[in-house]
Amino acid sequence: MTPATTGLNLATPLNVAEGQALSLTPEMRAFLLHGPRAKSKLDRDTIRHGGAATVLVQWRRHREELLDACPPGRRPWAYWMVERRFERRPSGELGELRAISQLCLYRDAAEAEYVERRLRELGRQRYRGRRHDAGALRVA
Fold it and tell me: Using the 8-state DSSP alphabet, how is residue 82 labeled?
């Protein structure tokens, strides 16, 4: 999994006046945590939220708060798309856990332990499922 350029143009100059407070609205919070709405285009949602520069500034100002809102082993949409510049967010819990583990993106030692333990659990569940399915195929 390698980072790639997103649809967000993060090189856009900031249009935010010096000292202008940018409070985190509930809509912006949801956008930074979950990303664009399912049937919406990224560019359209970005513009609706004030443009790429505003999204970037909001992410930088509220990064810790948004990271704290996520359980261990999970990250907000903006973490992957804005900060890490992935082309798309890792898919589901397993995808995020693998990305965090492979890129050593642990927030602390406790999260590192949790991520590795959870990956082992998910691996055992997948192995048990395959083993059960394979036995059923042999009998039939």
Answer: I
Whole-prediction pTM: 0.71
Asked if 16 and 22 count as a contact pair (C-beta separation under 8 A), the reply is yes
- What is the SS3 assignment for 3? coil
Separation CA 56–CA 94 (nearest Å): 27
In this structure, how many other beta carbons lie within 10 angstroms of the beta carbon of residue 74?
Answer: 17
Q: Which amino acid, 20?
A: Q
Q: How many CA atoms lie within 13 A of 124 on its CB side?
A: 5
Whose CA is closest to 35, among 4, 68, 81, 72?
81
- Residue 84 to residue 34: CA distance in whole angstroms: 15
Q: Which residues contact 90 (CB under 8 A, 6 or more apart)?
A: 1, 80, 96, 98, 99
Contact 81, 8 (CB under 8 A): yes
Mean pLDDT by 10 residues, the chain (140 residues): 48 42 82 81 70 90 96 96 93 96 97 97 79 44
